[in-house]
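Human:
If only I could read backbone structure tokens as easily as an amino acid sequence. I am handing you a single protein, as its sequence and its fold in token form. I hope you can help me see how the letters and the tokens relate. Thank you; the sequence and its tokens follow:
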Amino acid sequence: MHPFLEDDIFGLVGDDGACPYFWPIGDRHILLHFSHMSGGAYLLGDYDTQRDKFVVTYGGRFNFGSWHPGGVHAPSATPDGQGGLAAIFNINVAKPTPGWDQIMSLPRRLSLAGKDELATEPAGDIESLRYDHRKVEAMTLPANREIVFDSIQGNAIEIAVEIDPMKAPMVEMNILRSPGKEEFTRIAFYKQRGLLNWERSNGWEKWLESCDSLVTIDTSYSSELPDVLSRAPETAPVYLSPQETLKLRVFIDRSVVEVFVNGRQCLALRVYPGRTDSTGISLRAQGADARLHSIDAWQMKSIYQE
């Protein structure tokens, strides 16, 4: 009928907008879609019903690298009846899988955290699958020393971690780690190493506090198998206020790793450890001490068990 988007500066020329879902979210509207050029994305804005135009004010991504191999693909979404959306995503393979293609992510609840800020959390009764709870109490993470937690192992597991990076410029969590570290998947947090957000800035004196932080999933050493396709690390921005701790909810489901960050960001990738003992986790602070507030971990039951 006519071009639907107005003032969109967030997409790329040529984005095909596949799998579109256009819904109200809070007092705004959101358009989720998939581009075969640039991957899964969303646009936030206001729906002008008189002109049938979507006036875009912000845009973001659901994957932060190539959607293939092993990356997030197309979204599906529906209103959750509480002002948000329930969304689920295809995730591509990164290893030959004759006879089938892709797998589904965990459902996510998307909501507004601010006018142009999207919140994302696991949706549904995921906690009902938990069993065999393990906990690690508060401790110091000494600089430049990897701490392995032998009491927590698994490849079908939920891990909740809270860390105060303090003055450490980077803290990392290694999952699906073999005892000799032949295989591991690295989740790294880079404090205030992202781009400056001018709308958040209070002037040059505190400009660093207005910068996004960055979260990375690095699968470079996830597998020793020769047929697993490599990919560059997935790196996403997330804003944490100066006194805010880092809170990760990490879900591992065999070949799927999904990382929720402070309820504001989510990264997901496929991994394929080849060793049966690649089930450990560790933490490490780079350059300076950090403070671990807690680790809670649960083994996760299959949804197909009665």
